[in-house]
Every structure is written in structure tokens, then in C-alpha cells.
């Protein structure tokens, strides 16, 4: 090519959750090593069944000719009216239907939000960070991230003093990004912590980005608030979607709730640019939007939400009780979402540890792939070849912590137990 065509920030693009799948497929294709996938948060792929009453709603909508058409660029008006009324019932920020913008999944919303921020402005976000947020942040400006740390020794809660200092001494920070409940840690931000973060945003003239895709999956006695309930007068963008709620990840249906968008002219101009960008794409998927009032407004949905939270609570506690008995790692009881993170204790990993791999060619392949990678990724590479179990290394979440993330989605208890036992065996053999 006559010129360099790749964006200078492209080198920062990482999505280990799916990138590691290529390595797993290579093991299967070249050496016949089967794989148990514990990396991707797709409830349906792991065996969860969609409630028949939700399927019936969608079947009826498929027969409606309107579901095959374009929707308005902002989203279907009746659905945006339903969602704005839902926000109003919760109390807090007032949101009109025009303050809601539909996107093709939350990932699409994240991509637009970060791309339309000026190159030299920065978004401070948590570590570990969900890679869709963190990769989009560093891609935009070709620089390292500014992060605050979630503490595994304090129920994965953030240090407010750290957040304050990093905002104070980095005047280029214009926003704070959160995922609540969190992926990959399963933590839920306490309401008082959220309020302190909101106060910092008010004090320094920032806006907040809050990914609430797991807002309906909170358990173990924890409670949190939708950001809209406590935001007061601070501008914010809240990201929601149906992929984890129905669940319907293949719908690619999410939306942005633009809170207090008229509070500041610069923020209004920025949110208007989000709307204009969506108009350039014409619209988001129509059928899933049409289903939202019919599903969320159905009395059966409250039962579904409660039952699924109880299910993930049981499994999260099962994983916690199992791994807290394993030497060399530390764990925290999850409070939301359907993930479980395991942290290796300091000093237990090095670049000489291995696991038995019977096929010599496979062993050489793994040795080559594992050379020079982060120590937790090295462990996962060896576990995949030795045990046929794929997890996501925590280093793939832009984190200095070394460990791995599992999902708690597998419905069969005996299969879950088998997977956990094999992971424990891998850990004990690897660090012995």
C-alpha cells in the first residue's frame, strides 16, 4: 500500500474472551484435543433454555410485518416510551423517549461512545476492565489507560482515594467508566460507593459511563441502585440490553440512557453526535426492540428475574466454596452477573511450569505458543492442552492481577463438578 492504513491505536485492540478460542480450535484441529468452553458468557450456548412464554412473544412478533422493517434511528417510539416510564417509576433522573438511543448490542454502544470522545481526552475505568471498554479507550488515543483498581481483598470494591487522586492529577480525564454488576469479578458496587463516584464527577465536571447489562442479576443479599436513581444532576450514559436478561445475546439489542444530557452544552453536543452517528447507520434491529415492552412488562418476567438470580447465586457460592479450598489461589464470593474470578497468589507462577501433554507435537506447539505470554495466560494455554478446558486469563481484562475467569452458566451440576475438579488438578500440578 502507498501509505500505512492501520489506525495507530489498533495494536491495543484485544478481546481475549474470544481470541483464545482460536488457540483452542488449533488444538482441536491439529491434535484432536476436545475443549470444554468456559470463556464466553452466552447462557444459551451453555444450555440455558429460553422461557416458552418469551419464545411465544417473539414468534407472534415474527408474524407481524412491522418487525421486518427499519425502525426509527433512535429506536421504536413505543419501546422508548416504555423504558422512559420504567426509569421514571424507579425515581431519580427524568428521561424522555428522545434520551434513549438503541444500538446493536451494548458493544455497539461502547464503540460509539469512545470513538466520539476527543483523542486527547481520557476515560478512567476500573481494573480488571471489560475489554470492549478498555480496548476502545486505548485505541482512540494510542496511549496506556488510566485505571483504578478493584481490590480482591476487599470484595472487589474500588479505593475512592485512588480514583480521586488519578482524576485530580490527570486533568485530561473527562469521564469515569464502570460495569455494575461487574464482569469479570462478579462484584456489585455498593450504593454509597456509587454516590461517592457521582460526587467526584460533579466536583471535577466529568460524566459517567455505567454499563448495567447485568443489572437484573444481583444476589447473595446485595443490593445496588440503577445509576439513574442516584445520579442527581450529573451527566451520564447508562448502557442496557436484553442479551443477559431474556437471555437473547444473538438479538444484538442494547440501548443508551442519556441522563441529564441538557445539563451541560458540551455533553448535549456530544450526545447529539451519538444520535447522528446512529442515523448514519439507519437503525438497530427491529424485532428485539418490539419485544421489550411485552417481555419486561409481563408479570412472569419478575419471577424469571428472581429465579435466575437465585440460580446464579447457588452456582457462584458453589464455585466459591470449591476454590477457597484450593491452595495457591484466592477467591471472592460473587454478588452479581454470572462470572467467577480466581486469582493466583503472588509468586506461585513462573515461566518454567508445565502440565503433562501426551502428544509430543502438541507439547511443542504449546511450548511455542506459551513463550513470552503473561503467566496466567501461560497456565490457561497448558490447561487447555492438558485438560481440554478453556478459561479466560485475567491479564486479558487489562489487569496486572494473574488468574482466570470462568462462567457459572453450565446447568448440569455433575458436569460443573467435573470441570472444577479438573481445574483444581491442573492448578495443583502446575504450581507443585
Describe the structure.
This protein has helices at 16-31, 52-62, 77-90, 105-115, 131-141, 160-168, 191-204, 227-230, 265-280, 286-296, 299-323, 360-370, 375-387, 413-431; strands at residues 36-37, 100-103, 122-127, 147-151, 157-158, 173-179, 207-211, 236-241, 254-259, 329-331, 339-344, 389-390, 392-393, 403-407. It has 432 residues and is α/β, with parallel strands linked by helices. The chain has two domains: 10-48 and 302-431, Aspartate Aminotransferase, domain 1, CATH 3.90.1150; 52-298, Aspartate Aminotransferase, domain 2, CATH 3.40.640.10. The chain has an eight-stranded mixed sheet, with helices on both faces. Strands 10-11-14-13 form a four-stranded antiparallel sheet. Strand 10 and strand 11 form a beta hairpin. The model has no long low-confidence stretch (mean pLDDT 93).
Write out the strand line-up for the largest beta sheet, numbering strands in chain order: 2-9-8-7-6-3-4-5
CATH class membership of the largest domain: Alpha Beta
Query: In sequence order, what are the helices and strands, one letter per element?
Result: HEHHEHEHEEHEHEHEEHHHEEHHEEEH
Question: N- to C-terminal separation?
Answer: 51 Å
Q: What is the second-level CATH architecture of the largest domain?
A: 3-Layer(aba) Sandwich
Helix fraction, binned, reads: 40-55%
Overall mean confidence score, pLDDT: 93
Indicate the proportion of strand residues.
5-15%
Structural class: alpha/beta
> Domains counted in the coordinates: how many?
2
Gyration radius from CA atoms, angstroms: 22 Å
Unreliable parts? none
Give the overall shape: globular
At the fourth CATH level, what is the homologous superfamily of the largest domain?
A: Type I PLP-dependent aspartate aminotransferase-like (Major domain)
**Main sheet attributes: strand count, strand direction, barrel closure:** 8 strands, mixed
Count of helical stretches:
14
Number of strands: 14
What is the CATH T-level topology of the largest domain?
Answer: Aspartate Aminotransferase, domain 2
